[in-house]
Amino acid sequence: MNEQRSFDQTAVSGALYLVPTPIGNLQDMTYRAVDTLKSVTMIAAEDTRRTKNLCRAFEIDARLISYHEHNKQEKEAWLVERIRAGDTIALVSDAGTPAISDPGADLVERLTAENLPVISLPGANAALTALVSSGLPTDAFTFIGFVDRHKKNRAEILASWRGHAATLIFYESPYRVSEFLNAAYEAFGNRRAVIARELTKQFETVVRGTLAELCTYAKDETLKGECVLLIEGASEQEQLESRNPEWWEHLSVLDHVEAYVQNGEAAKEAIKKTARDRGMPKRDVYHVYHIEEND
């Protein structure tokens, strides 16, 4: 157990400061963030070129070193030793809050394990900025970030969150948004969802709708900029089904399809889900549904 008193200067000499930087609009830089970057021994930056521009804008004259996904292992031990020796180091990412979908999380874990101070400043964050304007529930939410881009792995990851009641938050490249939304529709059905892109920038856009609507939108629209995707959490029925994956076991194929239809699915989608649940060819379920329904 370790108790950190961040503002007791007799207890803090060397420390790591997690300093959020703007995700687009420079006016979102806080006074405290600027003061901290001006006062530390050095700044560890994911991209020193981008951070140089930020420092120039706020007249920050500090030593810059690189710390990113490809050099974190060789830099981590050195940074820990500098902090142990009494240096103060600010960690910044390309944009937003460091240690969120960011290699800084590993450094924070190492420092806290060694009882060295880590002091986090509040500031810009794309996930929370998108969430509070989404119109989706904010009382419970889960940040998932980027998911595997490979089709099978992505489908398995999304399926694992199907019964989760909280609003789900993802990051995605604009080049894969359409693929992601189609996979999300397969996994979650036609839930409410939101695309938030270019947050705080000139072309900030928030698109709210159902997953089906967003699939159509993303297919026809050329998206630019990193995107935050938010998906409504599971309904009570979906949570129940998730806790009991074989909820349909006592149903006939026809009743199985009808259960999905009554839950708001189109017949085509209900047939597809029934086939997936039962491990049956979709054409066989289609045949049973349309033949028996007309009897």
TrEMBL record:
Tetrapyrrole methylase domain mapped to chain residues: 16-214
In its keyword annotation, does this UniProt entry include Transferase? yes
Cellular component terms per the entry's GO annotation: cytoplasm
Its EC number is: 2.1.1.198
Q: What reactions does this protein catalyze?
A: cytidine(1402) in 16S rRNA + S-adenosyl-L-methionine = 2'-O-methylcytidine(1402) in 16S rRNA + S-adenosyl-L-homocysteine + H(+)
Q: What class of enzyme is it?
A: transferase
Q: Which SUPFAM superfamilies match?
A: Tetrapyrrole methylase
Gene Ontology molecular function, alphabetical = rRNA (cytosine-2'-O-)-methyltransferase activity
Query: Any idea which UniProt keywords this protein has?
Result: Cytoplasm, Methyltransferase, rRNA processing, S-adenosyl-L-methionine, Transferase
Q: Name one Pfam family in it.
A: TP_methylase
Residue runs in coiled coils? none
What PROSITE patterns does the database record attribute to this sequence?
RSMI (PS01296)
- From the Swiss-Prot or TrEMBL record, state where the protein is found: Cytoplasm
Q: Which family does it belong to?
A: Belongs to the methyltransferase superfamily. RsmI family.
Purpose:
Catalyzes the 2'-O-methylation of the ribose of cytidine 1402 (C1402) in 16S rRNA.
**What is this protein's record name?**
Ribosomal RNA small subunit methyltransferase I
